Amino acid sequence: MKLKQRIVLLAILLVIFIFTKVFLIDNLDTSAANREDQRAFHRMMAGLRVELVPKLDHTLQSPWEIAAQWVVPREVYPEETPELGAIMHAMATKKIIKADVGYKGTQLKALLILEGGQKVVFKPKRYNRDYVVEGEPYAGYDRHNAEVAAFHLDRILGFRRAPLVVGRFVNLRTEIKPVATEQLLSTFLTVGNNTCFYGKCYYCRETEPACADGDTMEGSVTLWLPDVWPLQKHRHPWGRTYREGKLARWEYDESYCDAVKKTSPYDSGPRLLDIIDTAVFDYLIGNADRHHYESFQDDEGASMLILLDNAKRSCVLWEYTWK
Question: Is the pLDDT of residue 313 over 50?
Fold first, then answer.
């Protein structure tokens, strides 16, 4: 082989060698980054894992007192919650001593009092988990399992603004009817071999009851916030009109966000950024029906949003949410 050919061949081999080394290094770097991401993910999941155990290791032996002490203006529960599993276990197992119709709202729910005097909201199962609701984004009944998933997403995002939620099976015949008020009891009926009820709410109808599987009903249980933290309802600045053919201002006015930022309580404090956080949250869970939101009463815009609401476009965002 001539010298010139050897030089060309050597150059080609050198290029291939360099390319291979760079490629391998990149792959190693990527693999290392992936491994670190996986380790970070597993650390996060370990920190979020909740064991529903009855043991309560706290100076306060009442799970309800512990949960009540957690609530402050900017969070419903703290970042470190070793007692969370015991409290959620109590929500899922404590004896029901009273059952009544749900508080105000458009969807079916029941207000339960658990042993120890704790109020909880029971939302019944209306759909199988793989059922797809057709129509408008806000069409259909509430999904009980979405309440559970939303609570844990709130934990993952680090918002800590959602009341505690856990799944629970209740026997309507033995656990609810014997302690139900007349108002709730009057809405019970039997469909086939299943015990059902339709409650009292804006859209509640006798023709559309929630039915158990026999007597056993699956649902979600949401912990009632302490009475010392009364709530105040606000109209959402990015709410829908719910009128066919009529757009809300935010749907056509490109300067609407700037106008909102000049209006109390959005002109100062965390309220506007919290609303945008809520928009991100609702986008992730697919919730498009947030026309009002609630904060703590007389907070002058300083407290968090308690019930997470929907906004359809954003102009600012908390830096930690973006990250």
Answer: no
CB-based contact 76:161 (threshold 8 Å) = yes
Is 79 a known ligand-binding residue?
A: no
Residue 139's identity, in one-letter code, is A
Domain that holds residue 240: 231-322
Query: CA 145 to CA 314: how far, in whole Å?
Result: 28
Q: Cβ(301)–Cβ(265) under 8 Å?
A: yes
Encoded amino acid at 118, one letter: Q
Q: For the purposes of burial, counting CB atoms within 10 Å of the CB of 311, is it exposed (0-12), middle (13-18) or buried (19 or more)?
A: buried
Task: Read off the pLDDT of residues 149-174 as tens digits, 9 standing for 90 and up.
Answer: 999 999 999 999 999 999 999 999 99
Annotated binding residue 70: no
Residue 36 inside a domain? The answer is: no
Q: How many domains does the chain have?
A: 2
Residues marked active site are found at: 289
User: What does pTM read for this prediction?
Assistant: 0.81
267 is in an annotated binding site: no
Q: Which of the given ranges, 2-11, 36-45, 143-152, 213-222, has the highest pLDDT on average? A: 213-222
Alpha-carbon span 91 to 163, nearest angstrom: 12
CB 199 within 8 A of CB 184: yes
Closest CA to 161 of 299, 322, 306, 285: 306
What is the signed CA dihedral for 231, 299, 248, 139, rounded to 10 degrees? -30
Are residues 100 and 164 located together in one domain of the fold? yes
Under 8 Å between Cβ of 231 and 296? yes
Residues 6+ apart with CB under 8 A from 131: none
222 is in an annotated binding site: yes
What is the residue-wise DSSP string for 141-155? PPPHHHHHHHHHHHH
